[in-house]
Specification:
The chain is of the alpha/beta class. It has helices at 16-23, 27-37, 54-62, 75-87, 101-106, 131-144, 162-178, 183-187, 207-216, and strands at 3-4, 44-48, 67-72, 94-98, 117-123, 145-156, 192-193, 221-228, 231-237. The protein has 9 helices and 9 strands. Helix 4 (75-87) links the parallel strand 3 and strand 4 (94-98). The radius of gyration is 17 Å and the shape is globular. The protein starts with a strand and ends with a strand.
Length: 238
Amino acid sequence: MSQIYPGEVFANTSDFDAGIRQLLPRYDEMLEVITRCVPSTSKKILELGCGTGELTLKMLKRCPDAEIIAVDYSPRMINFAREKVELAGYQQRWSGKEVDFGEWAIHPDKFRIGANFDACISSLAIHHLTDEMKQNLFIRIHETLSTDGCFWNADPTLPEAPVLAEVYKLAREEWATQQGTTLGDVRARVGTSSTYGYSSQDQLATLEAHLQMLMQAGFSTVAVPWKYYGLTVFGGLR
């Protein structure tokens, strides 16, 4: 199988949008929840790990005055997202930067990303960091937000018990079947991911652990607006 960066998932980028919708139940619903949790009046949004631009597009439609700075360490993902953004006519409101947000968490001065963001968003990216790095990132995000800013993240979480791991796995298998395929067939298109910077293969934490980290990072309110088996949208208000 092809070697890929963590988060790229599929050996061929063109497989991502269809494949991720077969691999993860209710993918679009999960991203829509993030867009609803971000105020539609937001002007300045930071996206960590833009992938192929699916969340970016939903957010640009939802927030007509927003400009999004999207960072990703994968040049092919940024290029893929940029093509979609340009096709949708949003190129004036979007900029993609090749940045390892794990590195940014520890050495923000290396990157001109800015501050006072109304919102920070992320999907299917932060779970590639160790728990220690997740904590560092949440602290950095908190410092980068405006006083009324918010942070929302969509990610898989570690099952709370082995019995639930089986329940979550079955839910994904049933979902793939409903999409006319099997989890095995979808995973056959997945590449072998190598470590890149501070990210490596899945390093899941429980939902409870994530919420504790957010509180320790200084978020005044933490919340879980959406959960579907092992997939969650969680975050906080500064």
